[in-house]
Amino acid sequence: MMDSKWLWFMRMAAMSVLLLLEGCRWCTIDACVEHERVALLQLKPFFNHYNEFDSWDELKGSDCCKWKGIECNTTTGRLIGLSLDSMRSGYLDYWYLNASLFLPFKELKRLYLTGSGIAGCVENEGFEKLSSTFRNLQFLDLSQNHLNDSFILSLSQFSSLQYLNLAYNLLEGKWPHIQGLNNLKILKTLDLRWNQMERFQSFKDLDAYLLVIYVDMAIKACGL
Prior knowledge:
- There is one protein chain.
- 20% of the residues lie in helices and 13% in strands.
- By secondary structure, the protein is α/β, with parallel strands linked by helices.
């Protein structure tokens, strides 16, 4: 008799655990991951020239998923989108970014750094250090900065990129720098408008998998 009651109890307990696990498949996280919140606060001083990040509260436990410019995965609470567009006075000062500050955001899919006055990266702290971490990065917007051809090489290992915007920079289209774009095998959209690419004659050497290439009309006249 005791054995049958014990067996019934064990079955009920097992069913309860299974139901709990199944229910958690549909759970949502109400707060961001703490170490990502801390990492965002470390970024804040570099991009808060216009005091746009008042919502980035330094109080421990503050939900960074609700902060301006932040998009989180509703299931895991991990950061998947980060928009720092025009949050720094890019027309007044140029500076060098420490890209390692983005390393904690391992699930990032979209990163927007438009109009930030970035002239490159701190030595040994460039975007190449992120390529092994950012396996899911699909959209990268670096338009309206002060980047030159050498910067392109640091992007050549972001194999998941589908959209890359480098418009309004200081690119000249020199080889082998721009050849690094050929490593981006699933890149579909490349924006190179308003650069200094008079020396660049043709995009024929870039692979045909690119569906959309935005360039200046002056460059198109060179035989694109």
